[in-house]
Amino acid sequence: MPFMEVSVSDCGKIACNRNQHSERHPVSDFPPPANAAQRLVMQIAALATTARLSAAIMHHLDRFIMRRTHQRTSATSILTGLPLIWLTTVGAQSGKSRTVPLLAINDGNALILIASNWGQQQHPSWYYNLRAHPQVQVQRGSGFSISYTTREVADTEYDRCWALAVSRYPGYTAYRRRTTRHIPIFRLEQSA
């Protein structure tokens, strides 16, 4: 599989150099921009009723499709054009390994995770896992796993990451309007 280096500018545009090779970011992890139908699905997904339904079923559909396609795609990717990762954490209370499919926003060699939980009033369970155990594994479409260290961002870094995330998936804006809680953002950087 060909590889490319990927960098994301502050405005969220992806710049690729196919002449350089990297084991960090396979080409298949960066789908082309969403088409018109996928942009429409993203708008519908941001609606309150759709978000509640999606919160209940999409992770099950994503798991099923990702397993059936050997992590090459997901239901979310098919419907919206957004790439997913498998995030493996250690349970905050159980201490057991927990894996969940999530949308990750690329920021250079780092990843950004938005703990929006579809605009619900409570944080997603993986939020507590990252707070308790910041060492995680990320598996992308290529099938290999990379170790990352997570940290919650704040202040100007939060604003920059939020703008980058909204440029990739505008539905985050609707999620923020629907909830009274602060939506945490995590930055994942590859472990040494």
Give a nutshell description of this structure:
With 192 residues, this protein is an alpha+beta fold.
Looking at how many chains there are and whether they match, the oligomeric state comes to single chain
Structural class, from secondary structure content?
alpha+beta
- What proportion strand? 25-35%
Distance between the termini: 24 Å
Tell me the strand order in the biggest sheet.
4-3-7-8-9-6-5
The amount of helix comes to 25-40%
Shape: globular
Please outline the major beta sheet. Answer: 7 strands, antiparallel
Mean pLDDT: 78
Any low-confidence stretches, pLDDT <50, length ≥5? Answer: 1-29
From the alpha-carbon coordinates, what is the Rg to the nearest angstrom? 16 Å
Structure description:
35% of the residues lie in helices and 26% in strands. It is of the alpha+beta class and 192 residues long. The strands form two sheets. It has a seven-stranded antiparallel beta sheet, with helices on both faces. It has a two-stranded antiparallel ribbon with strand order 1-2. A hairpin with a 2-residue loop joins β5 and β6.
Task: Describe the protein's topology.
Elements: E1 5-8, E2 14-17, H1 36-45, H2 48-68, H3 75-80, E3 84-90, E4 97-103, E5 105-107, E6 110-114, H4 125-132, E7 135-139, E8 145-152, H5 155-168, H6 171-178, E9 185-190
Antiparallel strand pairs: 1-2, 3-4, 3-7, 5-6, 6-9, 7-8, 8-9
Attribute tags:
192 residues, alpha+beta, 7-stranded antiparallel β-sheet, two-stranded antiparallel ribbon, 6 helices, 35% helix, disordered N terminus
